[in-house]
Amino acid sequence: MAAASSQVALPQQPAVDYSKYRPLYRAILAANWEDAEIFFNQNPAAIRSPLNEAYLETALHVGAKVDLALLLVERYPDLGRHKNLRNTVSALEVIVFSDCSIINKHSLNFLQSFIYYCVSKAESTTLSAPIFHLITSLLQWLVGKSIVNKMVLHHQAVKLLKCLCDQLKTLNDTQVNSLTKRAVFEATSLDIWQVILNIADAYPRSVYFSDSMRQRILHVAVINRCENVFNLICGTNVLRNGLSTHDDVNCNSVLHLAGKLAPPHKLNLVSGAALQMQRELQWFKEVKKITPPYFLSYRNKDKKSPSMVFTEEHKELKEAGEKWMKDTANSCTIAAALIVTVVFAAAITVPGGNNDENGLPIFSNNNAFTIFAFSNAASLFTSTTSLLVFLSILTSRFAEEDFLYALPKRLIIGLFTLFLSIIFMMIAFSSTVYLVFGNNRRGVLIMVAGFACLPVTSFVLLQLPLLVALVSSTYGRGIFDQRGFPQLPY
Prior knowledge:
Oligomer: single chain
Largest sheet: none
Mean pLDDT: 78
Low-confidence stretches: 1-18
Number of strands: 0
């Protein structure tokens, strides 16, 4: 009896004629809006059929061009309320997953910001089509096509994002959770703060979403070292206080997560293991500011405090940073010692020799000799300072906190004084050649000065990026800057 009942056929669903809508589907996927418009005009009654809506949604989700997706959403606003044909991905998730030019405007330089301003103004005017075309054409001629296209795509993607988020205000909590939860966490891990801001503006509860590990967006931002989302959250006192006291399923506080090693793609943003260690210490110090004091000794399920997690996770990075710092100091110590030897010998054996009668240098009344004496002494003093600074690095204890300020500061001083010593040494050498062989000929001076610029230029090209990175990372504004970010709706 059971076997017979198990073979009872289920009622068949009526077959759907998919071929009727294939022209529309193909036109949308090919970004051919003219053919799609023709289909719309010829089949006005069929536009709102369930199958056709599914086709439109799928075309939107598979990532047709951003401008076409924007037209679809503006014409059919409720498309953003549903997932795709397989009910797996929402339009907001596609924006995040496809990385469709949602960029951080705060990272744009002056020229890029000006181009973005012109593009946004051109699109917002009532005569958008001709003016927009004229402005973008002029900008492409002035600054290149790629940068203008990037700003145009960004502006359109932001408009698409706002249109989709506006639809969230008309939905219930269950629908919003289904459409936005995955997008919120993915945008947080990718540091796309504008997605977080727009979704939170339409649905404020989204900032309190929790994932399967019971982690919230602040935890995900700290794990992935997403400074833009972190700054956005910390710019709101209520939100910062509410999220910083929450822990995950393993009893890890946000400070425990800051103690874990950053993802490789975030570590590689800075060159050198010592600078990477410094960046990790900066993150740990900044997160410590927003957490309650008792979290400093708070233990997770493994009975580890945040400091213990940091030490354990960064053991290899600390060793690599120590090796990198010692190798750099060793190399620079050799260079500084050579310069000290050369300029000290030059100070004893002055160019042209000494007068047998009074022992004074023969060229002592020459202006070039005065330049030689000053530059040679300056090179000796700066190279000696550089040598002592690099020796202090080699004898340092290399504790974790030393990577934050002490070691980078010493390396900055050492590289800067070494650079000055090279410049003064070249000036002293050029003055000597001019005194001995120049015979007051300007051509000799120009030629010698030109060749003297080669080692200085080489040092600048090879070591200046490291010096700039050290100064910026140690004394710059830093990555934790809440100025300029809009407040969340709280």
